[in-house]
Amino acid sequence: MRGGIDLGGTKIQAVVVDRRSKVLGEHRMPTPKDAGPEGVVWALAESIRTAAEAAGTEPAALEGVGVGSPGTVDAGAGTVANAKNVIPTWEAPVPIGAGLADELGTRVFLGHDVRVGSMAEFRLGAGKPYRSILGVFWGTGVGGGLILNGRAWTGRHAAGEIGHMVVERGGARCPCGRKGCMEAYAGRAAMEREARRRHKSGHKTRLFDIMRDRDRTALTSGVWARALDRGDDMAKDLVDRAIEALGAGVASACNLLDVEAVIVGGGLGTRLGEDYARKIEKAMLPHLFVDDNPPAVHVAALGDLGGAIGAALLVPAASAG
Ligand SMILES: [Zn+2]
Question: How remote is the CA of residue 51 from the centroid of ligand 1, in Å?
């Protein structure tokens, strides 16, 4: 058995899986925000302990535990730096790997959350029929993962940052500080910033009423989905704007790489689902150089547990079985 943990900005999802990646136990908890990175390490350990218990085992008996994390992940050193959407002050490298291995008594392997999620889709999900895929994780930001000819392409560590493909020179300010990135239009954080700006200047929307009704403090994927269901004009306009940006950015990436399939995941991607994957596919068409043979576009198939199941894949198989 192997463990996998998906460390996110709002929640920690842990699973224990068998050799075929079947989930035997799982646990989900909110990401602790007040106790610093040490508190996060404790929570990661606690989540895998609980998942292991649900699977009828204990952490020390696992072949290993994989962790998919945002930020700058150095798998060799076992550190994570710049994970600001987990803890705003998390800049310096934190030795997650060693800390967690000590707590759990088993080996720990780190990977970048989006790359890990893309590999999970490639091996177990919507990417299974293909040799080369581009994973597009449409959530708070827009992350990307590349599998080329069956292998993850990580470049010099930072490949796959599709959210920062420039779709409009000198365009909207991106959370990364640059201008005109795809994420500046399509990332949920940027979409919310624009919605607040328009709302403040007098434009009508029910987005923030829905947010309050649902006891949220931010425009979550669920809030956007509900507003779209209710025919909210601003929500529709901002999502259409996001789709246009995704169409241009993803098509440009496909022009360069000619992958067989694009897998759309992430909070918004999975929440909005098939209809919106078709909209992205359509928005890509005008920008595709080879438009008579476009890549397949699929919604990620592993859903909410994909990140954690993918993290478990970071643990090398002990033997064939
Ligand atoms: Zn950017």
Answer: 36
